Amino acid sequence: MDIIQSFDSNVMKLGNDTFLRFNGRGISYAEVHESSRRTAALFTRLGVSEGDRIALMCYNTPGFVYAMLGAWRIGAVIVPVNHKMQPPEVDYLLSHSGARLCVFDGALAPVIERLQTRILPLSTDTPCDGITHFDTALDGIEGTDGIALDEKSPAEILYTSGTTGKPKGCVHSHRNLVLTAMNLSLAMSITREERFLMTVPIWHSSPLNNWLLGTLYMGGSVVLLREFDPGKFLETVERERITLCFGPPVIFTAPLAAVPRFDRYDLSSVRAWVYGGGPIGPQVARRLMDAYHTDRFYQVYGMTETGPLGTALYPGEQLSKAGSIGKVAMPGVDLRLVRDDGQEAAAGQVGEIWMRSETMMLGYLNAPRGHCRFFRGRELVPHRRLGPKGRRRISVHRRPHERRDHHRR
After folding, report:
1. Which 3 state secondary structure label does DSSP give 66?
2. CA-CA distances (angstroms) from residue 200 to 58, 228, 271, 280?
3. What angle do CA 65, 163, 312 make, to 5 degrees?
4. What is the DSSP letter of 150?
5. pLDDT, tens digit, 9 for 90 and up, residues 278-294
6. End-to-end alpha-carbon separation of the chain, Å?
């Protein structure tokens, strides 16, 4: 059970259908398949082997997708990197993850050039003097299908924001990723007719695992918008006939203030406007519904550690339960709200969200004994809580695949 199997299966069924669109050009499943095979061969030539880590510091461009799929074909582990980070922050992630190669957008060369960590760089999208251009290097290479993958082996390392110290690397297996994509697709009714707009950073956990992989798993299309811009966002939704869009609340509120004559855009193709990373109050919810001429807004909640899967607030609850993260868990997630004494929290009481799912991370990378606890099967390794008492925190309960987060019922 891995994404490469799912992708290759879709290539056989949907080879000529569009998987990616970028700058107005469609790229079919078959074309992405061939680019991923060539990427796998290129990485192998460069000495990358099973278990090695490959950092991806990109904007929303096809190169990210090719590098991701190519890395997985040979059993390498991807390390998505925030493209807004500065050299000291990037150095920490590269050093901590042990990445030996970095595919970066050429526009980020000023950051890459100041890194202290020794790493083999490849530029994508924008060429850079003196650095191999990843996109061009794929030309003429004979591709490879790669190796048979162990579904329990690591596939990616996603770093948390580091609000309680240094960023922590959440390690997800191939099985985690497939189950995340599968269950998110069930929760949001994704189909092969989907046209998802990737307008927020592709390296972030939810855009990547939930929406890109969910759309891939179901055989839909992903439209890549290199960077978010309010005007380009609306233009792309209209031109590409987008059906599904995800982002923080600001990507939906910003166009209302920044784009003159907002009403001139035809946004009627969108079946679901999905937001996460923060709540929307009742006044803003009503304003958005009026402006976008629809009530098809959803809020999703999850954590990097959980896939991220979690809960959803559906359209009928946007006004009556505004500010909530939803009442029930998504498919594949067990949810409880528990007081400090271990009892179920009643209405109005403060408790912790306990979530259990097969999409739970394998653990935090390189966490010393006594610092982090997680489960591999039924094996328990020590852990510490994240955050001061009474604040938002994530911790492990008694059973495998479970995390907790502070919340009020």
Report:
1. helix
2. 12, 6, 18, 18
3. 60
4. P
5. 999 999 999 999 999 99
6. 36
Decide if 146 contacts 156 (C-beta within 8 A). Answer: no
* Reported confidence tier of residue 405, pLDDT bands at 50, 70, 90: low
Dump strand ranges (E) for 278-401: 297-302, 310-313, 333-338, 350-357, 363-364, 375-376, 379-380, 394-395
DSSP three-state, residue 322:
coil
Q: Where in the chain is the domain with CATH 3.40.50.980?
A: 3-20+28-173
Query: Is the pLDDT score of 401 beyond 50?
Result: no
The chain-wide mean pLDDT, for the chain, equals 89
Tens of pLDDT, residue by residue over 235-287, are 999 999 999 999 999 999 999 999 999 999 999 999 999 999 999 999 999 99
For domain 3-20+28-173, give the CATH number.
3.40.50.980
Q: Which residues contact 310 (CB under 8 A, 6 or more apart)?
A: 300, 301, 302, 303, 325, 329, 330, 333, 335, 355
Whether the pLDDT of residue 117 is over 60: the answer is: yes
* C-beta separation of 176 from 154 below 8 A: no
Beta strands in 250-343 (DSSP E): 272-276, 297-302, 310-313, 333-338
Indicate if the pLDDT at residue 387 is higher than 80: no
Q: Note if the pTM is more than 0.85.
A: yes
Are the beta carbons of 404 and 397 closer than 8 angstroms? yes
Q: Are 396 and 384 in contact (CB under 8 A)?
A: no
